[in-house]
Write a structure and sequence with these properties.
Elements: E1 2-9, E2 12-18, E3 23-25, E4 28-30, H1 43-49, E5 54-58, H2 59-64, H3 68-73, H4 76-81, E6 86-90, H5 93-98, E7 103-105, E8 110-113, E9 120-123, H6 125-135, E10 139-141, H7 153-179, E11 187-192, H8 198-209, E12 216-219, H9 228-239, E13 248-250, H10 256-264, E14 269-271, H11 274-280, E15 283-286, E16 289-292, H12 312-316, H13 319-328, H14 331-357, H15 361-371
Parallel strand pairs: 4-14, 5-6, 6-10, 10-11, 11-12, 12-13, 13-14
Antiparallel strand pairs: 1-2, 2-3, 7-8, 8-9, 15-16
Helix pairs in contact: 7-8, 11-14, 14-15
Length: 374
């Protein structure tokens, strides 16, 4: 991986990340393709209509179905999905957290039951990397121990101890595998934990960032029940302890407002299911805020979703047509709405980057909120 900072506007950064499969200009939003597919879209949509340079796949889900060996048979995620640009794969730690009623972490890893058939499995830091080698993702997230908030100090302390221990095991294993010719073009990120406790975040960041062989670092364990203000304060505090010369990734975040606020605090990379999930539920993102296409007031509306948007959907279809498709539960709706929401997010990132390069991020932020009436 090559990484360079193109410009800084206070703490906001415009950077370039180069992997074996694409050049990624940050700040970047990664569409979520959990099982190797962004819901309702194919590789042509992602490349030709959206210009996506990187998407996210999930180790947990792909391991269970179709199986990482199956994906390897087809040439990894790129050959399997035909998406030619970069993939980042999450480690499965979040799924273990979200399925906590059927999973249990210990010092060595996470034991869990499949949500598909109830079979029992065990993830260790090494096992997760073996799966990600088969997936051939460009950026591999390591196994971490995530806790829901609020949590006791004892549980958060245990989380950061496990996360650090697993990070040391993961980088040692990855280095040994690369010496054998495995994972040569794959990069590895560690995940900082610590809840919203600044002392724990400092400990976790210092311990992990001291492991210099990591290619980048993520902030995990946020957007799991804390207030937005607490998330912003935690990110602002944590980035101070992260290397300047490596990518910074805030996992699972979030709304357009969350992205703008956290770019200001020094974050480079984001992912979230929100644009595609909200699209499927009738909520569309626009330059002036959210629009609920289910409303009866849109039945005869001939305007595009957002007059300022030049996505495939807005250039070709009316609000009235999308309202009809949604009410009819027509499958075409899911594609057109997802295209629009992801185009909105990816365009927002380009606008943010341009503002940083021109040293006018604060002006951009002010205009962003003004359009929303905030």
């Amino acid at each position: 991986m090559k990484f360079q900072i193109d410009n800084k506007d206070q703490n906001a950064r415009a950077c370039t990340i180069t992997t074996a499969h694409s050049t990624i200009q940050t700040p970047i939003f990664m569409p979520v393709g959990t099982v190797g597919s962004v819901k309702s879209l194919d590789a042509t949509d992602l490349v030709e209509l959206l210009g996506a340079k990187i998407i996210l796949g999930n180790t947990y889900h792909l391991y269970l179905r179709p199986g990482d060996e199956v994906v390897k048979h087809f040439g990894g995620l790129h050959g399997f999905s035909k998406f030619p640009n970069s993939f980042l794969t999450d480690s499965g730690g979040f799924q273990a957290f979200s399925l906590s009623d059927i999973s249990k972490a210990d010092a060595d890893g996470i034991k869990f039951k499949s949500h598909i058939d109830g079979s029992t499995h065990y993830f260790t830091p090494e096992k997760v990397l073996d799966i990600e080698y088969n997936l051939n993702s460009d950026i591999m997230m390591i196994l971490d121990d995530l806790v829901a908030l609020p949590a006791t100090k004892e549980r958060v302390a245990l989380s950061i101890k496990r996360t650090t221990d697993w990070a040391k095991r993961a980088i040692t294993y990855h280095t040994s595998q690369q010496q054998k010719g495995i994972g040569i073009d794959q990069n590895i990120f560690a995940i900082i934990q610590g809840g919203i406790d600044q002392e724990f975040r400092k400990i976790s960041a210092n311990e992990l960032c001291a492991l210099e062989d990591y290619d980048g670092f993520a902030i995990g364990g946020l957007s799991v029940g804390e207030l937005n203000s607490q998330m912003y304060d935690t990110v602002e505090f944590t980035t101070e302890f992260m290397p300047q010369d490596k990518p910074r990734y805030l996992m699972g975040v979030g709304t357009p407002e969350d992205i703008v606020e956290n770019v200001q605090r020094g974050v480079d990379m984001f992912d979230c299911v929100m644009p595609t999930r909200n699209a499927r539920n009738g909520t569309l993102f626009t330059s002036f805020g959210k629009l609920n296409i289910k409303g009866a007031k849109y039945i005869l509306d001939s305007d595009p979703i957002d007059p300022e948007c030049d996505c495939h959907t807005c250039k070709n279809y009316s609000r009235g047509y999308l309202n009809h498709l949604f009410r009819a539960r027509e499958l075409t709706y899911f594609r057109l709405a997802s295209l629009h929401n992801l185009h909105y997010y990816l365009t927002l990132m380009k606008q943010i980057r341009e503002a940083i390069l021109k040293n006018r991020f604060q002006e951009f932020k002010k205009e962003f909120y003004t359009k929303r009436g905030k």
